[in-house]
Hints:
Chain A has helices at residues 41-71, 84-90, 93-124, 131-143, 146-157, 163-170, 185-210, 214-223, 227-238, 240-256, 259-264, 276-284, 290-318. By secondary structure, chain A is mostly helical. Chain A starts with 40 loop residues before the first helix and ends with a helix.
Amino acid sequence: MKTSFEPAAADPAEGVTRGVTPGGDPLARRSFLAPLRRIPNGVFAWALILPAMVILLGFSVVPMITTVWASLQEPGIGTSIGPANYERMVNDPVFLQSLRNNLLFSLVTVPVSLAIAMLMAVLVDREIRARGFLRMALFTPAMLPVIAAAAIFLAFYQPNFGLINVIAQSIGVPRQNWLGNPDTVLPSLMVVMIWKEAGFFMLFYLAGLQTISPELNEASTLEGTGRWTHFRRVTFPLLMPTTLFTSIVGVANSFKQVDFIFVMTQGGPNNASNLLLYNIYLQAFPNRNPDYAAAMTVVLVSILVALAVIQIRMFDRRIHYR
Amino acid sequence: MSHRVRNRRRSIGRPLAALGAAAVLLAACNGDDADTRLEDATADDPIEITMYYPIAVGGPLENVVDGLIADFEDENPNINVTPVYSGNYDDTTVQATTALAAGEPPATTVLLSTEMFALIDDEIIVPFDDLAVTDEDEAWLDSFYDEFMANSRDAEGTTWGIPFQRSTIVQYYNKEAFEQAGLDPNRAPETWDELVEIATAVQEGSDVSWGVQMPSSGFPYWLFQTFTTQMGVEVVSPAGNEVYYDKPEVIEALEFWYSLSDEHGVHPPHVVDWGTTPEDFLQQEVGIIWTTTGNLSRIRADATFDFGVAPMPSNVQPGSPTGGGNFYIFADAPEQEQRAAFELIRYLTQPEQAAEWSIETGYVAPTPEAWETEAMQEYVADFPEAEVARDQLVNTVRELSTYQRGSVYDLINDALQSALTGQVTPEEALTEANESINELLAPYR
Amino acid sequence: MTTEDAVTAESTTADLFVSSVRARRIVRAERFANATELVGVWLLALLWIAPLAYVFWAAFRRTEVALTFQPFTGWTFDNIITVWSMAPFGRFYYNTVVLVVGLSAGQIILGCLAAYAFTRYRFPLHNIMFTLVLLQLMIFPEVLLGENFRLVARLGLADTLRGIGLPYLASAFFIFLLRQTFKSVPIELVEAAEVEGAGRLEILWKVYIPIARPTLIAFGLVSISFHWNNFLWPLVITQSVEARPITVGIYRFLSPEIGINFTALTAGTVITVLPLLALFIVAQRAFIQNFLRAGIK
Lengths: 322, 445, 297
């Protein structure tokens, strides 16, 4: 590690302590920033975080508050406040369907992508030839714009000349209308999501694997422990922190990622592939019901926060830090 | 976007915009009328207007639009037009309304003709009658096919939209597949019974996978209106505030559509994609498709086989709904921009330009004069199929157009899809949708 | 470890501790597992890259043969050329590049300052502020689509690149990550710098940032790729071609009223994906190494 300073013997006479504004020799350290040093630490720190906090507060917290406010506006002329939008929401089959779909979508895609990602990472972590190519092949889908991935799979899922049906037919499986059949449309979208996300999570797991001491692996090999047992007893538990972090990112993504609906199904057929954020978009923009959309947004945010808390609780118990 | 309308109590945007518009008006109309203001602008200081439009993927069509605009600018050097291609109708609606909410309203946009009531409700557009000053202007407003004006005028007869890229639904059929199946290649189905017979014959006797397909994604309500029209009923009131989806004829119409896949096995099951239906036809996967005449030029350009275009068949009567997009002028654009837009729209719907647009796309030119032009006569002589959609006009009905268009479309589209995927019976789906829609429209009656 | 090492280790151990029969069995099991893994990973990788490979294949084939598999005829650049002229892709690229580079740079600057403050100093409301940062990990700007749109429009930034980037300028993910990295900087270095009389900002620049370089690079690349691919927010906030990035451009392209042309779709996908792919292939090694060293745990 290169630094610009040599560790020097601390001179007790100087009485240098952490957190105190260092004086230094003004002549030796002539810097036009010198006047800044007189700013106390508390103010200094605030100045540092201010730009970031303004953006964060301005585009996450403030809109959240105004969203709640908007959701309480009663429809019609006048400025009354009330739960009308929430009542409508609770009785709206389209909203309930989109909620159900999203929960199911999350519940399936996140664990499956994590599992595949872990598998990928373990396989690719070894010293094998063409490791670079393999890693790239697995990671590339994660890098595509979702719109492009959606376009690719739209072509594949095409009932008449799409690749998947062509292959299915050649192995004797009857053709399906993957995107037009309400029973198969959500699983079809899940496949796209998993394909896209697993490679990305693989990177997290590769990083996590670096932290596992190689001696543990060697010990297992010497004892003749099977790969699977070694994985189950050693690798998997030690990867828990990574799993927690990745799972939080994954769950957030599964609620956030609705781009492919725009291209592939537009929420259909009959809302079988309508997800929460897409429904919010539909209500806010094409249907011009922003207050109703705000109510649904409140629900979405609550879910995200709740899921984050649940995940942290759930994993915290299982993680043992060394 | 109705952020501004629904939340007028919160937002200062609207009063501010009104103030702004008043200021402009005051400045502009110091005793002069809007026309003088337009003439004040010169080639060096032209009026800038923006026009959002939706159509098929670029290529020749975006170039055609650009060409038409360029010609207009040549004749009107004091107006500068920026055309912006904005995707499909829904996306264009969103773009225009978000631009409006952001304070940069376009002067004009091409949107669904059926968006009319929703736009009126949200106070987004101005009637063309307000901007028609001279006798010529009035004459122009009257020059369009009445069938297209059915979705362009409200119940009182005020003109809110000008037909531009209008269509009807037609049958495209694969003549080679017909021949292969031993059918007369020049005879498309003319009744519902014939539809089933011919579709079955084609499916069994040629290489196609399916005899017939009507797309049920994107615009299912529109395709469904072909069936209801052929049953001899209308589904919506001219005032846009009531629907009649629970009529027995309507239910029978949906049962027929569903039976094509369920009982007769000549139509793909579940929801058929709108966007890929022309491609399915071009790939010879299906023998007959029902879709917009707007696909005509593309199919003609890309077909590697002999194909035909035929009008809709008849059950009780033949027919199809009209469809497509109208020009609207936005209320929040400054008055001089509105006048400039008026001139632009008039130019684009003159016979020569309308003919050119129709030839390039397959949309129906919206005025009789356009069909009389030399270019159009030549085109039709060479390709008579282009006239099918226009000839069908006498058998058309107004397209489903109501207030709360977005939500109403969602309700009926979902209902149709739920019936076509077999999740509920046609009767259940339609009765429930009818109730929900009419409840939604109650405030407007 | 390689098979040879395993075998050597095994034979050594076997000599000392275990019977040779058991040793041979272990070695055979080891070899078998290795082979299975190798086959497995190759299958997985090929399966994963197949869709993209197929699209690249179809994009360069003539329309009639795009959906068939004869490898020797029908290659053409025409699709790409036609599609390129159908929309102002050059403009879209320019917008996207300017956006992602500017945004990533901004995020890094703001993030470094904020993470530094959170690491080194206890200041009033420290915990509350940091909780707010964590909150944004879950609540992305596009979740609050409607309100953020109104906010940005009111700031007069609708339909501009700045409008697209502004809500993302502070990245909670980066601040969180960087704080972790900063916390691992040995205190001796900091104290040494203080002894030399370095100012607080100087310490950030000369001590913390060099150590955090892998994190910065990894994040920069992640951010570039994330914002290159961002769709929903730019869809809503841009109207004209002026500020439209490539994802919205390709979407407009894919949503015509009239129908989808599949060779155009594949060619369009190739056009959208190629630069990012090229960048990634070139930067791949650097990216992954930095990502790993950044130590995400």
